[in-house]
Amino acid sequence: MAGPSDQRLAEIADSFFRPPVRDLVPYEPGKPVEEVQRELGLERVVKLASNEGPFGPFPAALEAIERCAPDLNRYPDGGAYRLRAALADLHDVRFEEVAVGAGSDGLVDGLSQAVLDPGDEIVFGWPSFPSYAIDARKLGATPKTVPLRDDRYDLEAMLDAITPRTKLVYVCHPNNPTGTMNTRAELDAYFGRVPEHVLTVLDQAYFEYIDDPDYADGIGEYLKAGRRVVVLRTFSKIFGLAGLRVGYALAPASAVTALGKVRRAFDITTPAQEAALASLDGTQEVERRRLENAAQRPEVERILREHGLEPAGPAVANFVYCDIGEDSRPLFEQLLRHGVIVRPTHGFGGSTAIRVTVGTETENGFLANALDRVTEMATKTA
């Protein structure tokens, strides 16, 4: 029998694929721990690259996963009825105003499919979350990026960038990768001026981490006030369910209906639905994790400053951003060799920066030791 090296599959020319897809630069995820261990022969690797929470699923979520495991020969509930109903009750909205997706990223993709035609435009700050641009380009739409001001979204400049072709405006709040937020007054002013033909997507993936009193709750303050807005949340971060991919959107019912039409059947698995549902009662654990993050984030900032790296700020979520003034990949590679994975932010529009996720006290200490060794090597070779 012929082996893989003897097989010859059909050749498909690049011209066969749509130009927007052919020219697309895909999203580049953070390196997995196992890959780094395998490639570099390291026993211990700490991942501070993907803004995951450092703690796993809640105990109730693990129990829920175990309970549903015997029935995984059955397809999941395609409409995620129980999860949507619970989220509607939690946020005091109608069932018809809740959509779920494979992470909030899946909802960005769904909104793009539901809204954008070739030639339409989206507006968002830059550097920021690259999926906004990627998902628009897939459909032949045009992303319009607006430079950040003081590492924060410049909402006034974004309003000026809106044209009659603009369909979606994304506000990453707090912004990924810079970790910064806009004030309530800035958002109020934005919503007071944004044209009626635009749908704003307020991405609050890190909502549960934030305790700044000037941080606006998009659901209570804008969606329920009748603004044309979709608010995104996720279970990937503080709830520790990144590997299960489940997020949700609260939006006017017409937007939820449109999302349902383009969403893939059964894209939220049964374990994801059950784990998310079980996590909703974990308010005390959410608070514990928020407080732990609030205690460790200044420590990460201190570690970076001690090694000549100045974080953007004020950071409010579970990560910090440092512009080092030159290509950040060499620093990324150096830290990698010492067992720490951070994120070079080239794909986010920040080619001279790294993003560092806040870890546990032990993980952050490991980062400090790795930076010590990188600094020592740089001193020897200087």
Helices and strands in order:
Layout: H1 19-22, H2 33-40, E1 46-47, H3 59-68, H4 81-91, E2 98-101, H5 103-115, E3 121-126, H6 131-138, E4 142-147, H7 155-161, E5 166-172, H8 184-193, E6 199-203, H9 218-223, E7 229-234, E8 247-250, H10 253-262, H11 270-279, H12 283-306, E9 319-323, H13 329-337, E10 340-341, E11 343-345, E12 350-357, H14 361-381
Q: What is the structure about, briefly put?
A:
This protein is an alpha/beta fold and 382 residues long. The protein has helices at 19-22, 33-40, 59-68, 81-91, 103-115, 131-138, 155-161, 184-193, 218-223, 253-262, 270-279, 283-306, 329-337, 361-381, and strands spanning 46-47, 98-101, 121-126, 142-147, 166-172, 199-203, 229-234, 247-250, 319-323, 340-341, 343-345, 350-357.
Question: Overview of this structure, please?
Answer:
The chain has 14 helices and twelve strands. The protein is of the alpha/beta class. It has a seven-stranded mixed β-sheet, with helices on both faces. Strands 9-12-11 form a three-stranded antiparallel β-sheet, covered by helices on one side. A two-stranded parallel ribbon has the order 1-10. The protein is globular. The model has no long low-confidence stretch (mean pLDDT 95).
Proportion of beta-strand residues: 15-25%
Number of helices: 14
* H-E string: HHEHHEHEHEHEHEHEEHHHEHEEEH
Count of the domains: 2
* Structural class label: alpha/beta
Tags for this model:
about 15% strand; about 40% helix; seven-stranded mixed β-sheet; Aspartate Aminotransferase, domain 2; single chain; Aspartate Aminotransferase, domain 1; three-stranded antiparallel β-sheet; 12 strands; alpha/beta; about 375 residues
